[in-house]
Structure formats: structure tokens, C-alpha cells
Hints:
The protein has 294 residues and is of the alpha/beta class. It has helices spanning 2-24, 29-39, 47-60, 66-88, 92-96, 124-130, 145-149, 151-168, 178-185, 221-229, 261-278, 289-292, and strands spanning 99-101, 112-115, 135-139, 172-174, 191-195, 206-211, 214-219, 233-240, 248-256.
Amino acid sequence: MQAWTSITRQMNDFLVYFLLPGVSVLLPSAWSRAVLARLSRRRWLLAEKSDVAWAMALEFSDPGDEREWKTRWKQIELLDVRDLYLMVSGRSRSVLAEIEYDVPLETAKDRVMVGMHWGPSISTLKMVAVAGLTPAFLFRPPNRHTLRSRPFYYLFLSMAARHMVKTMHDRAVVVGGAGRKLGAMLDQPGSVVVLMDAPPMKGRPILKCSVLSRAAVFNAGFPNILADKRKEYVFYALGLHPDGSLRKKLEMEGPFSSDNAQEFLLGYTGFLERHLLSDPAQWRIWHAAGQFWA
């Protein structure tokens, strides 16, 4: 049974993180979106990962119909991988042309863009860079142990890390003592991009705030830096367009400013909660929900 599970995982990884995005590079954008939309309804594709995400969503939210929820969740994963392959292959313009904006992206110029692990958003940094807003972002390099257990998934993670470094150069910040670097970047021109919903590492200072009527924990480091600097910020979410086309839509709220970390967090959790209530399948880290809600 364990051997079959491993074989199934490798087959899924080969399809999702190598074959399908590789074929997508050869197709017009609309065709590749149509292929992914069709395949996302196959129960066996990404079954293990979608089952875990669904189980956690069921525990902490009201996800609705299981099959539709899993289909949407798979669409996001498939589209994110496809977008990376297109950008790495020199087709960034095709990816960015699929994004609709509810407000001008220039609203984020020289401000902090505060987001979450939401939707097919791997194109965010390229979008910001092409607009001339000079992004900075904190990222974690892939764990080399993944190479042995899931080589195709590791290939995708490595490509993503190289793409980020190539897009941002010295403004790509590796985790580990990164707070000081990000703090210094707030004094420089450019847009710092931060995802606030990742569960904090053990031993780090935390802040708590209610999300979906449960106490959730957040890393206190960046909210404190932001409050100290009194830097203006916007909340953003790059998610699936509601028209079902697998195009994307960028939402932004703000700008705001605050000298109080808890006040900032209240605004952020309101933004996060509205999205979790309206379309929970777009949250990318349901697997970590048990660590997120304290």
C-alpha cells in the first residue's frame, strides 16, 4: 500500500510539475487554461494534496460542495505551475495579460503590499517588477530533502526560487535574520511584498487576532517594524477571476498607515477573513491550518 501511494504521488508530481506545464508552454494561453480547467475535474489528479486541504477546510470553515471546492483548489495549483513555466520560458507577457486590476497597480508604488497565500499568485513579483515598482520579497529556498522524495516537485520549487532571484536580484531576501534587511528596504524606494498568514516559527514573538471566530497566531516581527516605520501599506489578493475563465484578478485596499501593530493586524485579518468566507478554496495553506489557528 505504501509503495502504491509513493508511485501515485510520483505520477501526479510528474504530470502536475513537469508534463502539463511543459505542454502548456507550447500552447496558446487560452488553450492551456482550457486544458487545465478540464483536468482539474479529474478526481485522481492531486487527490492526496486536495484531500488534506479539504479535510482542514472542513474543520475550520464552511467549504461548501466537496467536488467543486477540490476542483477550484486544483485549478489554482495547476495554473500557478503553468504560469511559472510560461514566465521562465519568456512568455511573461502572456501571463500578465491575463490579470485584471480593480485599482491601478501604481497604488502600491513605494508602499508595502501585504497579502496572503492566496490564489494563483506566483506572477505577483513579475507583475510588480514589470510595472517598475521594484519588488522585494522574503522567500525560503527549497529543502534539499524534497529532492529525494519528490524530484519533480523539487524541480518546480527550485525554478520558482531562481525566478524570484532573477526578478528581484538583491531584493530577494532569504529567511533567517531577514527582519533587519526588510526593515532597511522600507526606507528605500520600491514595493516590499509580505505574506502575513504563514504560521510563525516556534519561539518567535507572536500576535493573536480572531479569524473565522477562532484565535489565529501571526509573526509579530513585521507588524512591529511596519508600525515603527509608519510606512504606508496596501492589502492585496491576486486570485482567480470570478468569471470561470482561469484568468486572474488583482484586488487592493488602501493605502493605510498605522503606528500600532495590533491595529494593523485587525485590518489585515478583516481582509483575510472576507476572502476566506467568500472563496476558501483559494487559500493555499490549508494544510497548515492547525498551526495557524492557535
